[in-house]
Amino acid sequence: GENVGLHLPTLSVQEGDNSIINCAYSNSASDYFIWYKQESGKGPQFIIDIRSNMDKRQGQRVTVLLNKTVKHLSLQIAATQPGDSAVYFCAESGDNTDKLIFGTGTRLQVFP
Amino acid sequence: DTGVSQDPRHKITKRGQNVTFRCDPISEHNRLYWYRQTLGQGPEFLTYFQNEAQLEKSRLLSDRFSAERPKGSFSTLEIQRTEQGDSAMYLCASSPAAYGYTFGSGTRLTVV
Hints:
The complex is a heterodimer. By secondary structure, chain A is mainly beta. Chain A is built from no helices and ten strands. In chain A, the strands form two sheets. In chain A, strands 1, 3, 4, 8, 9 and 10 form a six-stranded mixed sheet that branches. Chain A has a four-stranded antiparallel sheet with strand order 2-7-6-5, with no helix packed on it. In chain B, a hairpin with a 6-residue loop joins β7 and β8 (75-79).
């Protein structure tokens, strides 16, 4: 299948630990940000999103933090599980367009 | 209708041949997007439809590429005179608005 994640930065964590994945976005006019999870051979899967009028949003086991001052986005995964192993991408949109601009992915490896 | 469907999942073609991919979006979604993803990279925007109207095209979409969405439902992406550099995963996504994307599993194209 598709070898997503080849040559990408890799974060290795032990099962049960918390994971933090970081992303720098490019356009200060972007107003909507999304984190996607992509497993090999599959399309990106929505995890969580945040609008620029917020700096934090929580989901089930996941939290997204947005720092507009330095154009930085992070994804925190609590109690990381083996099923969380995948490549994670941040994406931005806005600035009068619906298209998504994806950042460089990070491969998350979870060890038992 | 549980998601975005793409056909075929895999396509191997000889250089110079034409190929056509199909995307069936979630039925109530009026926006449809095509992206291309190469190994180790995030998806890159190609083009976007709102209903049957093609509203935005990337400069990545050369004149060998054409996309249609004739009845505002399914969409096709055709590549003429394929080149080895066209080898990639072609992803389709749909959304009901300018957020809430759902991606399909993609069509993996290999040009030999």
